[in-house]
Amino acid sequence: MAKSETSTVEKTHESLNFIEEIIEKDLKNGKNGGRVHTRFPPEPNGYLHLGHAKSICLNFGLAQKYKGLCNLRFDDTNPVTEDTEYVEAIEKDVKWLGFDWGTRKYFASDFFDQLYQYAVALVQSGHAYVCDLTPDQISEMRGKPTEAGKESPFRTRSVAENLDLFERMKNGEFADGSKVLRAKIDMASPNMHLRDPIIYRIRKAKHHRTGDKWNIYPMYDFAHGLCDSLEGITHSVCTLEFEVHRPLYDWFLDSLQTFHPQQIEFARLNINYTVLSKRKLLQLVEEKYVKGWDDPRMPTISGIRRRGYSPESIHYFAEKIGIAKRDNIIDMSLLEFCVREDLNKRAQRGMGVLEPLKLVITNYPEGQVEYLEADNNPEKPESGKRQMPFGREIFIEQEDFMENPPADFYRLAVDREVRLKYAYIIKCNEVLKNEKGEIVEVRCTYEPESKSGQDKTGKKVKSALHWVYAPQAVSAEIRIYDRLFSVEDPEGDKNKDFKEFLNPNSLKVLQNAKLEPFLKEAKLGQYFQFERKGYFVVDPDSRNENLVFNLSVTLKDAYAKGKGK
Ligand code: ATP
Ligand code: MG
């Protein structure tokens, strides 16, 4: 990975990124008859992550901006690693991000017949041959970038023999790995991808869509550009590592004289404190370091959805990071900033005491309950107000009380006054402890004249605490998440396994949180802000009698201040 930098967003024009510039130039020149047609081409071998989200926003976004089309294409050329579970998860994720491929859902496997015909055409024109070298021999004879490779002894087979052998490969007459079809390009090319790359291999495996029909499968490099061409893709946007493959894709398209999409490369998204690679994320799932692909700590789209990030915040993030031509690393805090900005406008406010401490207001009449008005969302006055019960016994946050406070602690302590938000000013008079010496209750008196909005005391207090009325409090389990990795670049040390850098404290479960009564009715998919604490959503593990909430993001950027939580 490159060094962390933020200035690589390359906007050559005030509002256009470099891909948009290319598209606008093409439109001006009437290229492709004025069509803009992009695609998002995942391989269904894992769940999508935030890097894919960026690619989805880019490809579908370009189609929307230029009134074009965007296809969803599953690049399912490898029968061994692919699965329909992944296909379904990918579709769900793209939809969740708000995009629609209409009737244009394709699979590379839909094109297997056509791709086979293309391969036959290459054989017929002398551009491809069947090679019997072992995989080891092939890779050894490819040579090094600085020295030419050696030509295969099978390179000079006749067209007729190649046609016969290739057909018999297809018919399953040969064992896996015993033969491949290779493009006949240039064993001395400085671009290793052009040194007679393999285009078809024998693999007698069941494919998740074509079943046992095929004994041979096209290589990704052969299928990818040709599928783009078959689908009429005008702008084939992909990540930088495919730049060196472009001459090969061009060679296939030119040799076959088919429609030629333009490939454009951009820098892949990297984010610190996590890994964006399906292969590595799969390890975390399979080896049970996380609870699944949708574990809220995972950088997968299903993970962040469960975590309570909104799709809009991901769009906002994608827009903010822009499109770069050089690799860079984006700070996780930027993503969290975007989530916070969006949820601030979206989230219903409520009170949640995560680690409760009982507080008794000794001069408040026993058995009396009053209802106090609280904002549903101050960012959206039209969302109105709600009524919060208040009475003699409430819960406050343990951390909001200190027995021996330092000078800069402005919350509750003996003989000090604070406001209970939306309620009254209280003063602490006494603490009760259990036999272990732990504080179990604080006793206060309130100022009846200090009711929020009608305060006649003229008193100034330095803080307003959140609280929940105890007799009506709803109990819940709260899952608090931290970074999945404890170092910025878990893949940075090539001598170590990235899993060594997993953060052992990435999940903390608080079993005994106390929430405002209305939160009992909280539904999956609703966004909440627990005042002073952060944004929360219901977790799917939640049951009527066992409410579970996830922390989406804290209110403040805990990391900007050196992890000063
Ligand atoms: P991974 O390395 O995680 O397996 P991949 O590139 O192999 O990713 P694909 O399913 O082949 O995954 O990717 C589908 C599309 O998403 C491709 O066009 C790819 O360029 C894009 N993509 C994948 N990872 C990123 C990323 N980190 N940033 C931006 N785009 C990405
Ligand atoms: Mg891939």
Tally of domains:
3
Shape: elongated
Global Rg: 30 Å
Which CATH architecture of the largest domain?
3-Layer(aba) Sandwich
How is the main sheet built?
A: 7 strands, mixed
Q: How many beta-strand segments?
A: 25
Average pLDDT rating: 95
Compute the number of helices.
Answer: 12
User: Major sheet: order of its strands?
Assistant: 10-23-24-25-21-22-11
Q: In terms of structural class, how would the helical and strand content be classed?
A: alpha/beta
Unreliable residue stretches = 1-13
Which CATH class of the largest domain applies here?
Alpha Beta
CATH third-level topology of the largest domain:
Rossmann fold
Beta-strand portion reads 15-25%
Q: Which cofactor or ligand species appear?
A: adenosine-5'-triphosphate, magnesium ion
Q: Helical percent range?
A: 10-25%
CATH homologous superfamily label of the largest domain: HUPs
Q: How many angstroms does the end-to-end distance come to?
A: 29 Å
